[in-house]
Structures are given as C-alpha cells and as structure tokens.
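Lab notebook, bench 4. Continuing the backlog of folding jobs that were queued last week. Each job is logged with the same field layout so the records can be merged later without manual cleanup. Today's entry covers NHL repeat-containing protein, a 315-residue chain. Filled in by technician R.K.

JOB TYPE: sequence-to-structure
TARGET: NHL repeat-containing protein
LENGTH: 315
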Amino acid sequence: MVNETAATKIIGSKSHSYEVAEGWLKLPAGRTLGYTHGICVDEHDNVYIFHTGEESVLVFDKDGHYRSGWGEYGEGAHGFYLHRDADGVEYIYLTDIKRGRVQKTTLTGEVLLDIGTPELPDAYDENRRYVPTDVCVAPNGDIYVSDGYGQYYVHQYDAQGIYIRSWGGRGSEPGKLIEPHGISVNLRGGEPELYVADRRNNRIQVFAMDGRHKRFVDHDLDLPCSFYFFGDEVYLPDLDSRVTILDAEDRLITHLGEDQQAYKQEGWPNLPKSYYRPDKFSSPHGVCVDSQGNVYVAEWIFDGRITKLVRQRQS
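JOB STATUS: finished
OUTPUT FIELD FOLLOWS
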C-alpha cells in the first residue's frame, strides 16, 4: 500500500486502496458545472459527465482534459448509462426527469430512440407524473426504466422501445418500491438479474428480468442511488456521504470517502466550500470504474463535484 504523505491522500481498505487525484478535472475557461448526476466511461476510458449546466454531457479524456460537449437537458439531466449493444457499438442511454423522457444516443449526442410516458391510465394522469430517474439494458436488448421520482414503477421495453410490462408501485413489501432511483443488470451469476436501488427503503431489491421479486440486499447501505458492476464487484454511491463496494455475494468490501457528518449538516447537499475535503464525500450520486480499476464519483451539488480515485496496486 502507498503511504500517505502531506501531498497524497489515500482512502479505502488494504485490498481496495485509492489515491485521490486532486485537480484531475480540467474544465475549459469560463465553463462551470451544474448538479453532476451521472458519470460513465467508454472503451477508451474517456469520461462522460451528465450535469444540469450548459452542454449537459461533457466528455474528458482519462487525464481530465476536455474533449467535447453536447446536449441541452438542463434541469432534466439525471440517469446516465453507457452500453455496448449487440452491434458492438457503445451507446448512451439517459433520462430527462423534467420532460419525462428516456433517450438512446450515440456518443456524440445523436438521438436514436426516444421513449415517453407509458400509456398506463391506472398509474399516470395529469396529477400522477412519470419521472424516470435511471435506465439500463439487458443482454437481449430490452430496456428497463425506473420511475424513481414519480409513481415508483419499473417499466420494460424491447430494444425498439415497444412497451412490454410494468411492476412495482409504492410500498415496502416484496415487489413494491419507494423511490427506485437506480437500476442495472447483474451479470455475475448464472442468469441476468435486475438490481433496483430502492432508495427510500434503504435497500437493493433484486428481480428476475420479467419482474418477479427474488430477494433483498439490505445491509451496509445508506440511500443507495445507482450501480456500477466491475468484474465480480458492484460499486454504489450512497447519497448519505460515501461510496460502497460489495463483493460477488453482495457482502461489504469497503466504504470510500465516508463522512457520516456531511448529510447531517444544515443546508446539505449545498454546503459551504470550506466544508468539502478531497478525500471525503458529501452526496455521491453517480459512480463508474475505468479499465484500470480507477473510480470516478459524481456528487449531487449545485455547482458539481467530480472525484477521481486512482487504484493502488498491492505489492
């Protein structure tokens, strides 16, 4: 393990040790961030940030240099997912919580698919909004959307955006959800499973791909927001001020940057700048891992915050 010095901040555990790459992100002159909600990496380890400011998708290389920007999603920027489809091409799937849309785009922003509110009169009307917070794609191309800020359903579509089924609704019993904020596909076992960050129930709820409830993961979590699967591990941003890493059996490996005082501060998540520390998180909202095992964290703060954690190799 690398020894910490005055100039180097190391966080994590013996098996998962990271150096905080202070000053990694180099924004262009005059550019600022809005709330940084989503973050992902492509096959070349370029980093894509989804935020509520100008040019909603910002692209940086692995060294933090700005490459490009696109999209005007404004306050709607939220769920953000990069997926390699069956054609071998990487695409971005994103959600717009203001317009109630789910879109599939190229890596440069060309919209290829646009999905609106499901035609479900028993669930949605002028008083019951549809607010999609996250999206993921199954191996067969089916698209799954979590309505995390609306009526708390999960919706399934085929690869062309044709509606298949829905399940969920408000509640805490198996199959019910309260703020299903994030959604992803677990491919670590014998068959795909759907992981839902059932945030206000403080748990992960695991479903079969047809919506059948399978089990809960309800330990070592504190308002889980979303998922990033890397090898046999899953990385979760806990909104209450830490990133959690679970092993292949969904057992705790470590928490990164945990600050159990941050979310208790008056005015959280928008705290005075003097409060923030490079090696502590306040409101993690999105996380991803590049090909080298480096971790990138996006935080829900009005002027954005992106942290890069460089994985330390064990001797």
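OBSERVATION: The chain has one domain: 10-311.
SIGNED: R.K.
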